[in-house]
Design a protein that fits this description.
Helix content: 10-25%
Strand content: 25-35%
Distance between the termini: 31 Å
Radius of gyration: 31 Å
Number of strands: 28
CATH class of one domain: Mainly Alpha
Largest sheet: 4 strands, antiparallel
Structural class: alpha+beta
Strand order of the largest sheet: 1-28-27-26
Shape: elongated
Number of helices: 8
CATH topology of one domain: Neurobeachin, Chain: A, domain 1
């Protein structure tokens, strides 16, 4: 699903994949029945009945989802006693069949994969078989195609192009909801006018419980004649595909700029700058396996819990379980300041946009504001009844997560509104949880918040209404870390159950789950690839589309507990249980 959402699988490939579960296996009793290269024996519609292969010595038919060789010339129904069906009931015209399906109450046909393949022989009577004469006197020969198709090959090419079109890509999930999803049966199916004969639904009747053999055979025959709906795969709405954005890139991006620079990219008047930056990031992530250590420093006495960097990249701040906030000078390659706010551990830190203030959360239930220019604590927010585990900041709003099972949202007034303090704090909202909150993260635009609890639950919140949009029982143990994808469509979370899970924001569905050999504690990701720090101290580069580790990099001698990456993804800083901070660069 994630591969299809991100465009790594075509619509055609994804539909074939969805068709596989629950489909009957191919019959093997007749050696004359074989399958065309373009289709899978377990992927076609249950309701289609069928046909003979080119080399078949006598007419045969096969029910279910299985079709013969590319020369699929004729449709044979069981009522025909092994003979060709009446000429007017055969597949004579695409247009006529389409109208019958739309207007008729008894005609339910589905398109087989050959309609989107490269072999058009199933539309042509190449063997010149005598298929009969219709009531209007015309002979049944090749299938009549729509006027927009010049020939059978052109028909297939345009048909496939339509399936992969922008419009279909944007709406295919709605069709999946009807056929494989939550609108297939029950009240949702009734509301969507998507109901069929009861015998067509999987598990609707137990034929083995019918003792009378004649009745049982009659029931099986009726079921075969009606066809069968596919196995229901989804019980909640299917995620929408992420449709591609087209960029006008005027020049080739490069990652030859100084990759040691810690500061984010500065705005550019070039209209293509944003596109170039996005493309540059993709190139950097493609080289993430070449991440190399630059230097390491042991400046704390306990595990590192948070890392933040000033906008100009000159100063790196870190918090630790040793209760201190350290300021490290990139130029001097040594720490310059050490600040202690209490005798309890600091759990995280962040740098505000003004570049003058560092905010730290603490296990003593408080949040501390540190002034970089004045070198002292400026404010203390006593906001919770238990340890503050994580903090986020966006547009003068501070989000604080706590083991007291709440996330609180504070409006922080700008400097000057209070006589003696930097800020005044107004509580805007209190988001209740059923367990202590371990981690929070904001979407890039600040419109969504995600929280992860000690019981493994993940909740997605709307930051305008402070309402819960999704609540997902995601992990079997505590959530360690979470982050939105750059496009805000997905959330990645890692937990103490050693699982890495991708959640679709729109539907709340867990669309990818990876079980790792060890707990992953923290990570950075671009939506497809993940650089994460594990319990062993190694950095692992994961490809989420294949669910595989593509690179393992030795890093810390204890668990990796904190990670920071610059906006261009070229520089990484990690902190660990071993009290070390390691600086990394991506080598091109």
């Amino acid at each position: 699903m994630l591969q299809w959402q991100r465009g790594h699988l075509s619509n055609y490939q994804y539909l074939l994949h969805l068709n596989r579960p629950g489909r009957p296996q191919p019959a093997t009793t007749s050696p004359s029945i074989r399958f065309s290269p373009g289709s899978s024996p377990t992927t076609l519609a249950h309701s289609w009945k069928i046909l003979v292969s080119e080399g078949c010595p006598e007419p045969r038919f096969l029910y279910g989802s299985h079709y013969s060789s590319p020369a699929t010339s004729c449709f044979i129904s069981s009522e025909s006693n092994g003979r060709y069906d009446h000429a007017d009931r055969m597949f004579n015209s695409v247009g006529e069949t389409w109208r019958n399906c739309l207007d008729g109450a008894t005609d339910f046909k589905e398109l087989i994969p050959e309609f989107y393949g490269n072999d058009c022989s199933f539309l042509e009577n190449r063997l010149n078989l005598d298929l009969g004469r219709r009531q209007n006197g015309s002979l049944v020969v090749d299938v009549v195609l729509p006027p927009w198709a010049s020939d059978a090959a052109d028909f297939l090419q345009k048909h496939r192009a339509a399936l992969e079109s922008q419009f279909v890509s944007e709406h295919l999930h709605e069709w999946i909801d009807l056929v494989f999803g939550y609108k297939q049966r029950g009240a949702e199916a009734v509301a969507a006018h998507n109901v069929f004969h009861p015998l067509t639904y999987e598990g609707s009747i137990d034929c083995d419980s019918i003792e009378d053999p004649d009745q049982r055979i009659a029931m099986l025959t009726q079921i075969l004649e009606f066809g069968q709906t596919p196995t229901q795969l989804f019980t909640s709405p299917h995620p929408q595909r992420i449709t591609p954005r087209f960029h006008n890139i005027t020049r080739s991006p490069s990652i030859t700029s100084p990759i040691s620079e810690l500061s984010p990219a500065s705005p550019s008047a070039d209209s293509s700058f944003e596109d170039l930056t996005e493309e540059s990031r993709k190139l950097v992530w493609a080289n993430m396996g070449n991440l190399k250590p630059v230097s390491s420093h042991k400046i704390h006495k306990e595990a590192v819990t948070g890392i933040s960097v000033s906008r100009d990249g000159s100063a790196i701040f870190s918090t630790s379980q040793d209760s201190t906030l350290k300021m490290f000078s990139k130029e001097l390659k040594d720490f310059q300041r050490s600040m202690s706010f209490s005798n309890m551990a600091l759990s995280s830190c962040l740098m505000l946009a003004d570049g003058k203030t560092v905010v730290c959360s603490s296990w003593d239930n408080n949040v501390y504001f540190y002034s970089v220019p004045f070198g002292r604590r400026q404010d203390t927010l006593m906001g919770h009844d238990d340890a503050v585990s994580a903090i986020c900041w966006f547009d003068d709003r501070l989000y604080t997560a706590s083991w007291d099972s709440t996330v609180k949202v504070w409006q922080c007034e700008s400097e000057g509104s209070a006589a003696h303090k930097r800020s005044q704090f107004e509580l805007l909202a209190e988001l209740e949880h059923d367990a202590g909150v371990n981690a929070i993260a904001l979407s890039p635009a600040g419109t969504l918040l995600v929280s992860g609890c000690k019981d493994g639950t993940v909740t997605i919140w709307d930051t305008s209404s402070y309402g819960a949009l999704q609540q997902i029982p995601c992990h079997a143990a505590a959530v360690h870390h979470m982050a939105f994808s750059p496009d805000s469509r997905h959330v990645l979370s890692v937990g103490a159950d050693s699982c890495m899970k991708v959640i679709d924001v729109q539907t709340g569905m867990v669309i990818s789950s990876v079980k790792s050999e060890e707990e992953q504690r923290c990570f950075c990701w671009d939506g497809n690839s993940v650089l994460c720090g594990g319990q062993s101290g190694d950095l692992l580069l994961w490809d989420l589309l294949s669910n595989t580790v593509t690179r393992r990099i030795s890093a810390h001698s204890g668990a990796v507990t904190a990670m920071w990456m610059n906006d261009l993804n070229t520089t990484v800083i990690t902190g660990g249980d071993d009290r070390q901070m390691i600086f990394w660069r991506v080598q091109s």
